[in-house]
Amino acid sequence: MTGRRKSVHGEWSSRLAFILAATGSAVGLGNVWRFPYLTGESGGGAFVLIYLLCVAVIGVPVMMAEIMLGRRGRQSPVNTMRTLAQEEGRSPSWQYLGWMGMLAGFMILAYYSVVAGWTLAYVFRAGAGVFDSATADGVASIFSGFVSDPERLLAWHTIFMVMTTIVVSRGVKSGLEQAVTFLMPALFVLLVALVGYAMNTGEFNQALHYLFHPDFSKLTAKVVLDAMGQAFFSLSLGMGAIMIYGSYLSHTASIARTSIIVAGMDTLVALLAGLAIFPLVFAYHLQPQGGPGLIFKILPIAFGQMPYGAAFGAAFFVLLVFAAWTSSISLLEPIVTWLVENRGMNRVKASTLSGIGAWLLGIGALLSLNAWSNHKLLGKTFFGILEYLTADLMLPLGGLLIATFAVWRMSEESSRSELGLGSWSYALWRFLLRYITPIAIGLVFLNVTGLLTLFVH
Predict the structure, then answer these.
(1) Which residue of 1, 110, 141, 207 has the fewest C-beta atoms within 10 A of its own C-beta?
(2) Structural domains of the chain sorted by starting position, each given as residue range(s) with its CATH number in brackets
(3) How many Cβ atoms from other residues are within 10 Å of residue 134's Cβ?
(4) With the CA atoms of 327, 114, 337 and 20 taken in that order, what torsion angle do they form, in degrees rounded to the nearest 10?
């Protein structure tokens, strides 16, 4: 019975531990700025409804498939796909799906660590009162001066990568589980506290209207595609993280129920972040811009003007550090497990080598923000190339291939026994993955790569 295979790396002590870990993997910097921004600019509550529908139709079915493959294989993504393909009588080339996911996660970690380093640095900047009474030009100058200094970026990038490597090196129960058991509840507590502060300090009613008032006139094809993309990317699908976390999940845990809870918690964090951020943005007459500009150029202006702004600002950036840390841990884990399984390394050595590799690749990303900013390929810096290859190409393709293997190459008997679903719910899952999800992911892929425009015009 392949479902009873044991992982050599250990197992989560409970379903809650897996939920916290998977939610930690899904919750990242994008939840804090991108989801609230897209919601506000794309129809408020109307966008949220489309997003939730996309999570249900795309995100949850693919997450269930990825967890199912991980739990059935109980190995690194590469070895899992090789083993399952062999058991199902399929081509061994399916192992390259594991390689692609593992490589994508490794590349994402390289540039993600650079941005996470910014959040670490801003914890101390905000706490020290650097932004007190700062003007918009002053805050922008602080940020541009920071990003243009490769030595400072390198220092914070190094610190963050060491933090990530230490946790992963300690293993499943002593490292991953202990970290997320503390970090995720702390993240939720911080978020709720920041929302409470924003309710009393900012324009909370205006933020509620901005985020949740349905404006269906703003719903366009692009908005729907953006909602699809956000639903897929926000759940950390297609990069091996959910697959490897699934390999540590108990065989008695419900994959369907667990996936729904993780997707719900991920969405809750994004909405709470919006309720913490936008009351302050509106209270201090700032523009709710998207991207890193909101976090590092706009919000610090509010921190510098509000009562107890230094403490609030420091707490906000600590929240970002926690979100980034739990995500980065999951990005490093797949390649570490592969080194342990295939190269006979212990976790400390495998984590150290993997961390150094991602750190070195990250140096190229941080230099592309300053010293190498004029060196571009196809109009993109090294940072931009890493982001494009992973987010725009490898992740959608990985999700599509996961769905394809789960319902077209894996036998119905295998998937049914692993998922443990009733007849109706199993038929629905299989239908979504076979027909609806591939079309949706294909449209996301064409949209983010710009190819959809070519077809339309």
Answers:
(1) 1
(2) 2-456 (1.10.4160)
(3) 18
(4) -10
